[in-house]
Design goal:
The complex is a heterodimer of chains A (319) and B (229). Chain A has 319 residues and is of the alpha/beta class. Chain A has five helices and ten strands, in the order H-E-E-H-H-H-E-E-E-E-H-E-E-E-E. Chain B has 229 residues and is of the alpha/beta class. The relative contact order of chain B is 0.19. Classes of the chains: A alpha/beta (319), B alpha/beta (229).
């Protein structure tokens, strides 16, 4: 039996999938090297489990540096050991509270970038995103979206917990998707678990009204880009699960890539690359699909038809 | 009581005087490297040990508690390498030559602390006497790269960690005119990088390790960028 996964709409992902011949039936799970082997009957169907909660998590990318913490050494003055211990404990509780407050403030500040899009994002449905993502995946077997509490009729069950983020310059979306693959028999052990991060290629300089770009046509571009990121994360996880990704023997290195207008770095192994994008495996074993730093952004597609939003997502935001 | 207070003030005054005046930041002027025949040497001070530090854990018991609580982190951090940091002077020579500067690599490293005291004081005059290096290295000006701190830092307040561990890179870059012993560039770098997500992931600390190599890369880029884009 042969399975085949790729985007219908992504030339990059498609190219990466070319030549990927399955199937080894061996497991590639960074989370559990002792995971059970894949049985042929697992490949007869791909069941994507829909979320119980319709809400889709969007947040702003937090700045990656700083966070100096609460500084300063307190002086403990106490008449005896018991009072001193109480002072130390009380100080510990105060510090923990201060740190939690500091983190909340940072998250709130980062999420402010989503304010212009909140009305639209609140209407996005997790089930709809997953269904559309599944529609774009080519699979040789049966392909079904199943309810969160439904029993799968054989094959593999894929569960995704996506978190979407927008860069602080609003020029790119990215997804951090925790993906689990298990056999239809829910009592059987997990076959695969990993996190996949996909960073969309940022909008080019020709987009000067970014808010209008994302919100036009009832925010179809936001929806289309989210679906595309979700689909790419699923395809990469499935390829990883089936052992289709190259086993890099290269040493880890600090790879530069783009996240919006910023250049970011990740210590990782490069698994694939085509000059525009790189597929990395980072130190945590996560897969990361990222745009190469310093590559000119492609021209912007000026209009998006709602009907074709999934098949022809805007190239400027293509992962 | 008044005598004690006076004594305390005297001690504080003496200690303050001993602290000295810190060299102010100096950006590179267009003239500093434009002299056609000036030979510019590039040298780096010995690299510090890659290690952990716990600022704020100041009493002996606090230090012991911080060291104990972070022993696996320290062991991991100490095993992290410099990557190609030792190549930084060579890379800087290439950058300077690309800008038309007659730059040359000074072999070995320079222990600035072992240099003698400068004979003169004044604005932008180095406290150490770099002038003998003009004859020793056969250069007119000297770029000194001094990486003073490299590793991971976790802030403490006595016994308690008050923040997450972060990768740190502290360095100083200076350009000294060896004829005058004056700085023509003086830049301090204090870089830190938090882990993306959780940092406390023993034994391999992947998030913090990633942050370490990120801050190392940022540090190298910043030093090379000290001499203009």
């Amino acid at each position: 039996m042969r399975a085949h996964f790729h985007h219908r709409s992504s030339a990059i992902a498609g190219a990466w999938c070319l030549g990927a011949v399955l199937l080894t039936c061996s497991r590639n799970s960074p989370a559990d090297d002792q995971a059970p082997a894949v049985e042929p009957e697992h490949l007869a169907a791909l069941n994507l489990r829909l979320p119980r909660d319709e809400h889709v998590a969007y947040s702003g990318v937090m700045p990656g540096t700083g966070g100096a913490g609460v500084m300063g050494a307190p002086v403990y003055v106490a008449p005896n050991v018991v009072v001193a211990a109480a002072e130390v404990l009380a100080n510990g509780m105060v510090i923990a509270g201060q740190r939690a407050h500091q983190q909340t403030k940072l998250h709130e500040a980062a999420d402010a970038v989503l304010e212009p899009y909140k009305t639209y994002l609140d209407q996005f449905s997790g089930a709809e995103l997953l269904r559309k993502a599944l529609d774009g995946i080519d699979y040789d077997g049966r392909k079904t979206a199943i309810a969160w509490d439904a029993k799968a009729d054989g094959g593999l069950v894929v569960e995704a917990v996506p978190a979407f983020l927008m860069t602080q310059d609003s020029r790119a979306l990215l997804i951090i998707d925790t993906i689990i693959i298990r056999p239809a028999n829910q009592k059987a052990p997990l076959l695969y678990k990993n996190t996949v991060e996909v960073v969309a290629t940022p909008l080019g300089d020709s987009v000067d009204d970014i808010q209008n770009y994302w919100t036009r046509d009832d925010a179809q571009r936001l929806m289309a880009t989210s679906v595309m990121l979700l689909r790419e994360s699923l395809v990469l996880a499935l390829r990883d699960f089936h052992g289709e990704l190259p086993k890099s023997t290269e040493p880890q290195r600090t790879v530069h890539f783009r996240e919006g207008e910023l250049e970011q770095m990740e210590r990782s192994q490069v698994l694939e690359g085509d000059g525009q994008r790189l597929l990395l495996r980072n130190l945590r074993g996560w897969l990361m699909s990222v745009p190469v730093a310093g590559v000119p952004t492609p021209p912007v597609v000026q209009s998006v038809k709602p009907d074709s939003a999934l098949a022809d997502a805007p190239k400027s935001a293509e992962p | 009581m008044n005598k004690r207070l006076l004594l305390a003030l005297l001690v504080v005054g003496l200690l303050s005087a001993c602290a000295g005046v810190k060299q102010k930041e100096l950006t590179l002027t267009s003239e500093a490297l434009s002299q056609e025949h000036a030979r510019v040497g590039v040298v780096m001070a010995p690299l510090p040990k890659v290690d952990t530090q716990f600022p704020g854990a100041s009493c002996l018991l606090c230090i012991a508690a911080a060291n104990g609580a972070n022993s696996s982190l320290t062991k991991h951090v100490q095993a992290l390498g410099y990557e190609d940091l030792a190549q930084l002077p060579t890379n800087l020579v290439a950058v300077l030559r690309h800008k038309g500067v007659n730059a040359t690599l000074v072999p070995g490293s320079l222990e600035v602390d072992k240099l003698g005291k400068a004979g003169a004081n004044g604005d932008n005059v180095a406290k150490k006497n770099f002038s003998p290096l003009q004859a020793k290295y056969g250069v007119d000006k000297l770029v000194v790269i001094h990486v003073s701190l490299l590793g991971v830092s976790r802030p403490y307040a006595a016994y308690f960690a008050t923040g997450d561990a972060q990768a740190v890179f502290d360095a100083n870059v200076s350009l000294i005119d060896l004829a005058t012993n004056k700085y023509e560039l003086y830049t301090d770098l204090n870089l830190s990088q938090a882990a993306d997500g959780k940092w406390d992931e023993p034994p391999d600390f992947p998030g913090l390790t990633n942050a370490y190599f990120q801050v190392l890369e940022r540090g190298k880029q910043a030093i090379l960028g000290s001499f203009g884009p």
